[in-house]
């Protein structure tokens, strides 16, 4: 059984529609896929409607968190999306994403970059009224406007942390986020812990991971395409010390990451252990 627990669709910052992500997953030889768009489950119905017989979809999302001004990403699975506390935070996060994106577009225009809010919204799309506008959408608009050579160049030159068009946004405290997911009946994993952003020097601090584990964190995504072998070994050892499951995932974003579904995978026993406590939702089997 081949299991990938981290992927994105065009509902957030991937390039493919949710149903297309499933098609790519099947072509990649996967048996289980978690769709984990940023701060939304709006793509789950479309993905669930395109499952071939026997294929399993794990409903999830990548929840935006922050620690001391730096991003921390939490993968949440099988939670009740109607849970009042979690649902309210998701609305706040998504609303702030839109305000932040508008602010970035305004700064870009002041700097002479021909990016419009209308075009950014077209790139981001809209599913069931769910506005999830992210920096990758703005980056693609920057490339279209000729102000960067690639999405990565747009981040480096304009909208990355400290860039001339960067705007901070609201995000949850990681420990509180873990508690909210658990209260909503879900389970969660710390995403790509060796890849920090902002003030973090490339890794999530050990003391924070310990506090997240005490709050109910279930796993650490040690096997990630951005982690080298030493980083994978370090985070595997850290997971063992804390009694957490080790997961592996592709963090695929379609064209933006070269359609890498299945690049890293999760052991079936680890997957079973991770999802066992979940009560908010169940995997969807075609």
TrEMBL record:
Molecular function, one GO term: 5'-3' RNA exonuclease activity
UniProt-listed Gene3D superfamilies: 1.10.150.650, Metal-dependent hydrolases
Short name of any one Pfam family annotated for the protein: PHP
Annotated Polymerase/histidinol phosphatase N-terminal domain residues: 3-67
UniProt superkingdom: Bacteria
PANTHER family per the UniProt record, alphabetical: EXONUCLEASE, POLYMERASE_HISTIDINOL PHOSPHATASE N-TERMINAL DOMAIN-CONTAINING PROTEIN
Stated name of the protein: Polymerase/histidinol phosphatase N-terminal domain-containing protein
């Amino acid at each position: 059984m081949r299991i990938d627990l981290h992927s994105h669709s065009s509902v957030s910052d991937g390039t493919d529609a949710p149903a297309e992500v499933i098609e790519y997953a099947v072509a990649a030889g996967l048996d289980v896929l978690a769709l984990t768009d940023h701060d939304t489950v709006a793509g789950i119905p479309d993905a669930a409607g395109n499952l071939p017989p026997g294929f399993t979809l794990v409903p999830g999302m990548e929840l935006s968190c922050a620690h001391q001004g730096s991003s921390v990403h939490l993968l949440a699975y099988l939670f009740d999306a109607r849970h009042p506390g979690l649902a309210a935070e998701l609305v706040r996060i998504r609303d702030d994403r839109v305000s932040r994106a508008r602010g970035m577009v305004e700064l870009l225009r002041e700097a002479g970059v021909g990016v419009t809010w209308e075009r950014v919204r077209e790139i981001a799309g809209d599913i069931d009224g769910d506005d999830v506008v992210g920096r990758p959408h703005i980056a693609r608009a920057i490339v279209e406007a000729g102000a960067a050579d690639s999405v990565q160049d747009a981040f480096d030159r304009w909208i990355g942390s400290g860039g001339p068009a960067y705007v901070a946004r609201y995000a949850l405290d990681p420990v509180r986020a873990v508690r909210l997911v658990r209260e909503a009946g879900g389970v969660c994993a710390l995403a790509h812990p060796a890849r920090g952003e902002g003030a973090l020097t490339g890794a999530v601090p050990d003391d924070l991971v310990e506090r997240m584990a005490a709050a109910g964190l279930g796993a650490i995504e040690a096997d990630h395409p951005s982690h080298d072998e030493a980083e994978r070994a370090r985070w595997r050892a850290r997971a063992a010390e804390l009694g957490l499951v080790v997961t592996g995932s592709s963090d695929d974003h379609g064209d933006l990451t070269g359609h890498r579904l299945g690049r890293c995978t999760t052991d079936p026993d680890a997957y079973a252990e991770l999802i066992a406590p979940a009560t908010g939702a169940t995997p969807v089997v075609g």
